[in-house]
């Protein structure tokens, strides 16, 4: 998985309150997330606290599912994400010191938990998750926000004299740290990823400032994931984006692990065919040698050599692909034709003897007849 991230403070902000996380939690589990917050809780930016809590909660539940081992169903994973968001919401609300009348810290959060090739998207707020498949960009989440002018106009969009929408930050309808966790439970969706799919996460400062017609080619280009993410952030700044803008792009989302690890895992060593043949030949010769060595002292027989004389052999009277499976131990200058007919017949098939002295005694007896 190739992950690229870019973030920018924006033209109208003094600090960057966005946060992001991309972490492989297990060999086949990866968590991607972005958050856009305001305020601090215990001295920690709201967005950072939310992502840390969600990540730790998911990791803890995955550990419980591993020891002892059990299978997580899609329903289990959905509940896992709902519980993680609830924990983040409660922690942010408690540490932020808010109450029913005052919100001191809040944050959006969009998280994608990828298990093998299954992507589970949990979402609260107006950050976005996109799926990139075959150079097409599809939004996987809906913004939970509304333009204030739509509220004032009863749903009619008010435009400036130039005919373009006013640059007004939308009103956030839901966020973590604002109210009870039950009221802000994340919307969780589930998708099956294909090979070569990519996932992109954008905070609103990025996706609101970059039209879809510019966003799609910027994310689907041939540049690295980092370069593509930086291009989107640059387009947001050029487009007049005043808010913090963060882009997280994960290519090859079904391949878990860092980009540096993938080539080593995928690389195949190409061995020339001739090397394969040489290796096979060496194996065969070694096997034959072992067999010949083993039978040399366990199987002795009399037969005839190429000149027709009787010889003592060790091994077996056979060959393997033209290679004899025996060795010559002794040659007797006795023509086989000078021996009795039944002995010649036995010699043609290999006349087994118990040892060299037994072979000598047998031939001495036959030649004296």
Structure description:
This protein is an alpha+beta fold and about 375 residues long. The chain folds into 2 domains: about 1-265, Phosphatase 2c, domain 1 (4-Layer Sandwich); about 275-365, 2-Layer Sandwich (Alpha-Beta Plaits). Helix content is about 35%, strand content about 30%. The protein is built from 10 helices and 19 strands. Strands 2, 3, 6, 7, 8 and 13 form a 6-stranded antiparallel β-sheet that branches. A hairpin with a 4-residue loop joins strand 16 and strand 17. The termini are far apart. Residues about 150-165 and about 265-270 have low confidence and may be disordered.
Distance between the first and last residues' Cα: 88 Å
Helix content: 25-40%
The number of helical elements comes to: 10
- Uncertain ranges: 149-166, 263-269
Shape: rod-shaped
Query: What is the CATH topology classification name of the largest domain?
Result: Phosphatase 2c, domain 1
Structural class: alpha+beta
CATH superfamily name of the largest domain?
A: PPM-type phosphatase domain
What is the name of the CATH architecture of the largest domain? 4-Layer Sandwich
Beta strand %: 25-35%
Please identify the oligomeric state: single chain
> What order do the SSEs take from the amino end to the carboxyl end, as H and E?
EEEEEHHEEEEEEHEEEHHHEHHEEEHEH
CATH top-level class of the largest domain: Alpha Beta
Mean pLDDT across residues: 82
What's the number of structural domains? Answer: 2
Task: Calculate Rg over CA atoms.
Answer: 39 Å
Compute the number of strand runs. 19
């Amino acid at each position: 998985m190739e992950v690229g991230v870019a973030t920018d403070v924006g033209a109208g902000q003094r600090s960057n309150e966005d946060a992001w996380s991309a972490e492989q939690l297990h060999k086949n589990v990866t968590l991607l997330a972005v958050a856009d917050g305001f305020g601090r809780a215990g001295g920690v930016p709201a967005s950072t606290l939310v992502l840390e809590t969600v990540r730790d909660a998911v990791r803890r539940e995955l550990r419980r599912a591993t020891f002892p081992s059990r299978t997580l169903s899609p329903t289990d994973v959905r509940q896992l994400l709902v519980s993680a968001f609830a924990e983040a919401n409660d922690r942010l609300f408690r540490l932020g010191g808010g109450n029913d009348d005052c919100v001191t810290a809040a944050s959006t959060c969009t998280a994608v938990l990828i298990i093998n090739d299954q992507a589970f998207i949990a979402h609260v707020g107006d950050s976005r998750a996109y799926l990139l498949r075959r150079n097409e960009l599809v939004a996987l989440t809906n913004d939970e926000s509304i333009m204030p002018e739509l509220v004032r106009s009863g749903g009619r969009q008010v435009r400036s004299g130039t005919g373009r929408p006013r640059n007004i930050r939308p009103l956030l309808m839901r966020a973590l740290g604002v109210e009870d966790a039950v009221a802000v439970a994340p919307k969780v969706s589930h998708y099956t990823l294909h090979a070569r799919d990519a996932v992109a996460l954008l905070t609103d400062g990025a996706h609101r400032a970059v039209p879809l017609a510019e966003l799609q080619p910027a994310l689907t280009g041939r540049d690295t994931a980092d370069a593509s993410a930086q291009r989107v952030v640059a387009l947001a700044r050029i487009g007049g984006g005043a808010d913090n803008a963060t882009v997280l792009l994960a290519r090859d989302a079904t391949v878990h692990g860092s980009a540096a690890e993938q080539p080593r895992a995928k690389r195949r060593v190409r061995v020339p065919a001739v090397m394969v043949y040489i290796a096979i030949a060496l194996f065969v010769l070694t096997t034959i040698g072992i067999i010949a060595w083993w039978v040399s002292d366990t199987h002795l027989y009399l037969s005839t050599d190429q000149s027709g004389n009787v010889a003592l052999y060790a091994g077996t009277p056979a060959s393997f692909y033209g290679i004899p499976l025996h060795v010559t131990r002794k040659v007797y200058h006795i023509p086989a034709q000078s021996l009795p007919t039944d002995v010649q017949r036995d010699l043609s098939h290999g006349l087994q003897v118990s040892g060299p002295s037994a072979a000598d005694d047998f031939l001495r007896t036959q030649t004296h007849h």
